[in-house]
Design brief:
alpha+beta, Alpha-Beta Plaits, four-stranded antiparallel sheet, 2 helices, 22% helix, 35% strand, UPF0166
Length: 113
């Protein structure tokens, strides 16, 4: 698989406790991205953050469920990312989704020409 040099970064901000049909939402998103043959997905866990509710989520407060912030990043062609957006609409009930243009310098073992 090859990613075009000019690609799109899809960034999804959700909470660790967000669910989709009884499974973690981040897991559902990554599995759907893989199912649609997107170039790859990475889930990043943040030690602190807040969203629309302004409620602070942090590792500093001791509690059973921390609901820490998660960011899922996916880079692929604009066409493939746009094809994935309706899938996200079907499985997400809250969160933040952003898109930005990126220049791919390397994907895999060889540098982009």
């Amino acid at each position: 698989m090859q990613i075009p040099k000019q690609a799109i970064l899809l960034r999804i901000f959700i909470g660790e406790d967000d669910q989709c049909n009884g499974s973690p939402l981040y897991e559902a998103i990554v599995l759907k991205a893989r199912e649609q043959h997107l170039a790859g997905a990475t889930v990043l866990r943040g030690p602190m953050g807040f969203g629309k509710s302004s409620r602070l989520h942090t590792t500093k407060i001791l509690r059973l469920s921390e609901d820490l912030p998660l960011v899922i990043e996916i880079v692929d062609s604009e066409e493939n990312i746009n094809g994935f957006l309706p899938v996200l609409d079907g499985i997400m009930t809250s969160g933040l989704i952003t898109l930005e243009k990126v220049q791919v310098l390397r994907y895999g073992e060889q540098a982009m020409a």
